[in-house]
Design a protein that fits this description.
The protein is mainly alpha-helical. It has a domain of about 100 residues: Tetratricopeptide repeat domain (Serine Threonine Protein Phosphatase 5, Tetratricopeptide repeat), CATH 1.25.40.10. Helices cover about 75% and strands about 5% of the residues. It is built from 11 helices and 2 strands, in the order ααααααααββααα. The chain has a two-stranded antiparallel ribbon with strand order 1-2. A hairpin with a 6-residue loop joins strand 1 and strand 2. The longest helix is centred in the N-terminal third of the chain and has 37 residues. The termini are far apart.
C-alpha cells in the first residue's frame, strides 16, 4: 500500500511538471508572437531563448541566431549555433555564420561559410562577398573569378550597402565589383597604378558618390606621387 501511494504521488508530481512545462511553452509562444507584433527585439530573443530551453529545436535555434546577427550581436549569434563548417546546416544557419564571422573579422572562417552558400545557390551578391574575402586572404586570382562572375550576372537595379561612413549608403553592385577589380589589379601589379585608377574611374562614372572608391583612388594617386622609397 505504501509503495502504491509513493508511485501515485510521483505520477501526480510528474503530471504536474509536464502540465507546467506545457503551460510555460504556451506562455512563451504567445509572448514571442506579441513581441514580434510590437517589434521588440529583446523580447523576441527572450522568448526564443526560453522556448529553446523548454522545447529545443534546430529551427528555433537558427532563428534565434539570425535575430542576434540581424541586431549586430554577432558573438551571441555564433555562441548560439557555433562556427563549425557543417553540411547539415540550414541555409539560414550558414548565412548567420558567414555574416557574423565576417563582422568579427574572421575572413578565412567566413569564407568557408560563404562558399557553402555559393555551392547551394550562387548569385552576384555571394560572388561579391567571396571576392572581397579572397582579396583579404591574399587569393587575388580566386577573387577575380568571382568579380568576373559578378560583373556578368549583375543587374542594373542591384545595390550594395557600405558602412565606412557614419551614414551608410548604397551603390550599384556593378560599381562595387569594379572597385574590387581595381584592388585586385593593384595587388597583382603595384607598379601599374594607372590601370587600377582607370578601373576605379569606371566605378565612379557609374556612381560619382561612391565614397570608398574615391578614398581608394586618392590613396593610389598619393602613392604614385610619393617618392619611390615610401612605396615599399
Amino acid at each position: 500500500m505504501k509503495k502504491l501511494l509513493i508511485a501515485l504521488v510521483l505520477s501526480i508530481g510528474f503530471f504536474g511538471v509536464a502540465q507546467t512545462k506545457t503551460e510555460l511553452q504556451k506562455h512563451y509562444e504567445d509572448f514571442y508572437d506579441q513581441m514580434r507584433l510590437q517589434g521588440d527585439i529583446d523580447g523576441v530573443i527572450n522568448a526564443l531563448t526560453h522556448l529553446n530551453v523548454l522545447a529545443p529545436s534546430k529551427e528555433r535555434r537558427d532563428t534565434l541566431a539570425y535575430i542576434y546577427a540581424n541586431d549586430n550581436q554577432h558573438l551571441q549569434a555564433l555562441n548560439t549555433i557555433g562556427i563549425e563548417k557543417l553540411d547539415t546546416d540550414s541555409d539560414l544557419a550558414v548565412q548567420v555564420k558567414a555574416i557574423s564571422l565576417k563582422a568579427l573579422n574572421q575572413p578565412k572562417r567566413a569564407l568557408e561559410q560563404f562558399e557553402i552558400l555559393n555551392t547551394r545557390q550562387p548569385n552576384a551578391y555571394l560572388a561579391y562577398e567571396l571576392a572581397d574575402l579572397k582579396i583579404q586572404t591574399g587569393d587575388n586570382d580566386g577573387a577575380m573569378t568571382h568579380v568576373e562572375y559578378g560583373l556578368a550576372n549583375t543587374k542594373d537595379d542591384m545595390k550594395y550597402a557600405f558602412y565606412e561612413r557614419q551614414q551608410p549608403y548604397e551603390v550599384p553592385l556593378k560599381a562595387a565589383f569594379l572597385h574590387l577589380k581595381a584592388l585586385i589589379q593593384f595587388n597583382k601589379d603595384k607598379e601599374n597604378i594607372d590601370a587600377a585608377v582607370a578601373i576605379i574611374d569606371e566605378a565612379l562614372k557609374i556612381e560619382p558618390n561612391f565614397n570608398l572608391a574615391s578614398l581608394s583612388k586618392q590613396a593610389l594617386v598619393s602613392r604614385k606621387a610619393a617618392p619611390a622609397e615610401t612605396k615599399q
